[in-house]
Design brief:
By secondary structure, the protein is mainly alpha-helical. It has 4 helices and 3 strands; from the N terminus they run ααβααββ. The protein has helices spanning 2-18, 22-50, 56-63, 67-80; strands at 54-55, 90-91, 96-97.
């Protein structure tokens, strides 16, 4: 009987460890959001400091951000700067950003 109880207890402990709690999910979301913000700031800084048009490869080398994420960040920056004094200049034909 004791051996069966021990096995059952181990199963319950394993289940508890493998379930992502709401708190853990929230923490993961926060980490993801922080990383996303950091990447956006990194791209923004690279564009500002470069002082010239940069293509996707240049931005990948400067920021070390994967191309899929980089394209999404560039879309967000275009939206952010579409109004107001600053405008993110894009050369769609050349695929370069400034």
């Amino acid at each position: 009987m004791e051996e069966l109880e021990i096995r059952e207890e181990k199963k319950r402990e394993t289940k508890k460890e493998s379930i992502i709690t709401e708190k853990t999910a929230e923490q993961l979301d926060n980490v993801f959001d922080e990383k996303e913000k950091e990447n956006l700031e990194k791209v923004e800084a690279a564009l500002f400091v470069a002082g010239k048009y940069l293509d996707l490869q240049d931005l990948i080398m400067l920021t070390d951000i994967n191309p899929i994420m980089l394209k999404e960040i560039l879309r967000k920056l275009e939206k952010k700067y579409s109004e107001g004094a600053l405008v993110l200049i894009t050369k769609i034909i050349l695929g370069k950003w400034m």
